Amino acid sequence: MPSGGHREGAGRKPGSKLTKSQLIAAEARDAGVSPLEVQLTAMREFWRRAHANGEMDVGLAEKALYSSTARQRRGQD
User: Fold this and answer.
1) What is this structure's pTM?
2) Helices H, strands E: what count in the chain?
């Protein structure tokens, strides 16, 4: 089998462009919610939880940071 180049039957099939994530993104866009707004809302919520008792909850911050970077390393983000 040749490596690289054009292969018959490879790639995205016609009509498969509307994936579930694209539909969700379109619904959010139609509702007026941008990805930046979602990210900032999540960041503010983590900040609120981490500082709920007046000082930083290091465990919660580490959990948020390391779960995010672990997903990125696995290619899930």
Assistant:
1) 0.41
2) 3, 0
